[in-house]
Write a structure and sequence with these properties.
The complex is a heterodimer of chains A (about 450) and B (about 230). Chain A is an alpha+beta fold. Chain A has 3 domains: about 200 residues, no CATH class; about 80 residues, Alpha-Beta Plaits (2-Layer Sandwich), CATH 3.30.70; about 160 residues, no CATH class. In chain A, strand 3 and strand 4 form a beta hairpin. Chain A starts with a helix and ends with a helix. About 0% of the residues of chain A have low confidence. Chain B has about 230 residues and is α/β, with parallel strands linked by helices. Chain B is about 35% helix and about 30% strand. In chain B, the strands form 2 sheets. A 6-stranded mixed sheet of chain B has the order 6-7-8-3-9-10, with helices on both faces. In chain B, strands 2-1-4-5 form a 4-stranded antiparallel sheet, covered by helices on one side. In chain B, a hairpin with a 2-residue loop joins strand 9 and strand 10. In chain B, helix 3 packs parallel to helix 5, helix 4 packs across helix 5 and helix 5 packs parallel to helix 6. Chain B is globular. Chains A and B meet through helix 1, helix 11, helix 12 and helix 14 of A and helix 2 and helix 3 of B.
Chain lengths: ~450, ~230
């Protein structure tokens, strides 16, 4: 039989029993509607989270440290934790990382504990140095007022609005282009000498440190994101400029000991990769070379598994509804076989094979699934639309922002219809087998 | 093998089990039908006429014995081959017409071509020709319930002939028709036979058989009666 004829005969047969087909189909529509709306809720949740994450730099940023970090691997048995020798991150390491495919930017972690002074006001801050090409990437491409640095050695800074408030600046525009003082701490060799008995002015307190005053111009103002892989950047200055500012070149006692032991290197390096698809090979390369690597992708697998379980739970509820609908299909098709007992006999007498008869019934139940699937997706869409409106009204009343709770991707539409057809087809197999077994002699005698 | 005998039956027995009891519907039948013959099978109800016809058509299988149709042993055929045998070699009509009530005359007639996967254009042409030959061109869009008994039987005949079968089996084709319509149908069967189609007519009406058939055999309690 030609497929076209199978479809025509199935459709004609279903039209003959309109009410029964409608009722049976309604079961599929409700089942698929439930399945689609539930999975779309899971998909919506997943999309909201992943969209929010993709907007940031957390997927494409990698932090490289000298020591391999064994996050969680031996947390149940810390005694077995192996101490791996730490590597030194030098300029040549950074050059090598830069040469890896997909790597766009590599820069060392340079943070300078300092004080910012503007007029009479001052604020303790941690300045962060970034390279000049950082302005191409999130979050450094988010400068709200002014611009990025004019050069890598320009005496310029970018300040967050929060720090401006602390400096008593009411209108951010008013400070743009003005000079501020960046005060850093440095070793004072004079004072250190005095500590060891060398001559010093007698009135002076003896401390190993001294202040250094740096005049810098505010060129940009922004609100850095609180959650960023690039770290907090309340005050940012060019990398070249940071190298010229005298400062205590250690963040912790560990860094200090490291420098004394002659193993001087960068404590941490930031690596930015073009797209998150390129992250994994870069991580592997750096990790294989013996460096420590931190990236969100290492944690994301667990998140994916979580979503999968959540989707499966929602899908299972919809599938139960569809299973009930499939029982309706079996019932309808068995009834149809009984009603068309004589007709099946006639068809066999005219040369229909077992396969022809089976196909007639399987296609008929699949047509119920196909039409039920399409209408079910539409029902699911309407349900999500209503739920979305109701939920958002509640969220707005609570003072929240409108969110898109449901998401029906194309794959979900296709998969729902395909699933409806598949379930209906399976439901049609038993009645079809019964129809194929009909004895034509008995059937032709049947009144 | 004598191909002039298009039907060759030997020792054919068909036993039905009705609970503990056995019913011998056919009991050791030997029969040959020559190509182009118009054979009349007469006998009382329950004599085994329809059973014999069903066995020739491959709708039923014998308990023992052999049926050769156009040189092919039906016992050696699987279910699919038997379906194809019914589709192309056999054309069959019944007392109760056996039309599908939800289909038009046109759709009923083209049904064997649908199972034969004949393309739609060819199917339409052949169905229209068949309906014209049986005088039903005006009734092609009518359903069986909208047609007279004679028209329904002519539709069934058109359907049986659509694949140009070698053997035409008619099981009491006039059983539900008045005498005038019966004669019209019998004239149609004669015309079919005269075109070379071997015809086997099952009837309890001996006079009708004597008028149209070239040979008559009688069945009684599952056996041939000379």
């Amino acid at each position: 039989m030609l497929f076209n004829d199978l479809l025509k005969m199935s459709y004609a047969s279903l039209r003959r029993t309109k009410l029964r087909t409608f009722l049976t189909g309604t079961g599929v529509v409700v089942g698929i509607g439930a399945l689609t709306s539930m999975i779309s809720f899971g998909a919506g949740l997943q999309k909201n989270i992943s969209d929010a994450m993709k907007k940031t730099d957390i997927f494409t940023s990698i932090e490289v440290t000298p020591r391999q970090l064994e996050f969680g691997r031996n947390r149940h048995n810390p005694e077995k934790e192996e101490e791996k020798p730490s590597k030194v991150i030098t300029d040549s390491t950074m050059q090598w990382i830069s040469s890896l495919p997909g790597v766009k930017m590599v820069y060392p972690e340079v943070i300078i504990p300092s004080q910012l002074r503007f007029g009479e006001k001052s604020a303790s801050i941690t300045a962060r140095a970034v390279p000049l090409n950082a302005n191409q990437y999130y979050p450094f491409n988010q400068i709200e007022i002014g611009s990025f640095f004019s050069s890598d050695t320009a005496k310029e800074i970018i300040i967050s609005k929060r720090i401006l408030k602390r400096l008593g600046v009411q209108h951010p525009d008013s400070i743009l282009g003005k000079d501020v003082k960046l005060v850093t701490a440095k070793f004072s060799f004079e004072n250190i000498g005095a500590m060891f008995g060398m001559p010093v002015p007698f009135t002076q307190d003896i401390k190993p440190f001294a202040e250094e005053m740096n005049t810098v111009t505010v060129v940009g103002i922004w609100s850095p994101p609180e959650f960023s892989a690039s770290g907090m950047a309340e005050v940012t200055l060019p990398m070249g400029t940071s190298n010229r500012i005298a400062r205590l070149n250690f963040r912790s006692v560990w860094d200090l000991l490291q420098s004394f032991s002659g193993k001087e290197g960068y404590p941490m390096v930031h690596v930015r990769v073009g797209s998150f698809r390129e992250v994994e090979p870069v991580i592997k390369n750096i990790s294989d070379a013996g460096y420590g690597v931190v990236n969100i992708l290492q944690q994301i697998d667990e998140l994916r598994r979580g979503f999968l379980i959540f989707d499966a739970a929602l899908g299972a509820m919809g599938t139960i509804a569809l299973f009930v609908a499939s029982l309706g299909i079996i019932n309808t098709m068995v009834m149809s076989v009984l009603e068309r007992y004589r007709e099946i006999g006639i068809m066999k007498a005219l040369g229909a094979t077992h396969t022809d008869i089976k196909l007639l019934f399987v296609v008929e139940s699949s047509v119920i699934g196909f039409i039920g699937g399409i209408l079910g997706v539409i029902l699911g869409w309407i349900v999500t639309l209503i739920a979305q409106i109701v939920a958002n009204q509640y969220i707005l009343r609570q003072g929240g922002e409108i969110v898109r709770l449901f998401y029906i991707p194309v794959w979900l539409i296709a998969a729902s219809i395909a699933f409806a057809i598949l379930v209906s087809l399976i439901a049609g197999l038993y009645p079809a087998a019964r129809a194929a077994k009909v004895d034509p002699v008995q059937a032709l005698r049947h009144e | 093998m004598n191909h002039e005998n298009v039907i060759l039956i030997s020792g054919l027995t068909r036993v039905y089990k009705m609970g503990e009891a056995e019913v011998r519907a056919l009991d050791g039948i030997d029969l040959t039908v020559a190509r182009g013959e118009f054979l009349g099978l007469v006998g009382a109800s329950g004599s085994g006429k329809s059973t014999l016809l069903n066995l020739i058509a491959g709708l039923d299988s014998p308990t023992s014995g052999k049926i050769m149709i156009d040189g092919q042993d039906l016992a050696a055929m699987n279910a699919k081959q038997l379906a194809i045998h019914r589709r192309y070699t056999i054309g069959m009509v019944f007392q109760s017409f056996n039309l599908i009530s939800s289909m038009t005359a046109f759709d009923n007639v083209q049904l064997p071509l649908v199972f034969a996967a004949v393309p739609q254009a060819e199917r339409q042409a052949r169905t229209s020709t068949s309906l014209i030959h049986t005088g039903l061109q005006e009734r092609s869009r009518h359903r069986p319930s909208q047609m007279s008994g004679g028209e329904q039987q002519r539709t069934a005949i058109a359907r049986a002939l659509i694949n140009q079968p070698k053997i035409f089996l008619a099981d009491e084709p006039t059983g539900n028709l008045d005498s005038k319509t019966s004669i019209e149908i019998m004239e149609l069967l004669r015309a079919i036979n005269e075109q070379g189609t071997t015809t086997v007519l099952v009837t309890h009406n001996l006079s009708l058989a004597e008028k149209y058939c070239t040979r008559i055999i009688q069945l009684s309690y599952g056996k041939l009666v000379e």
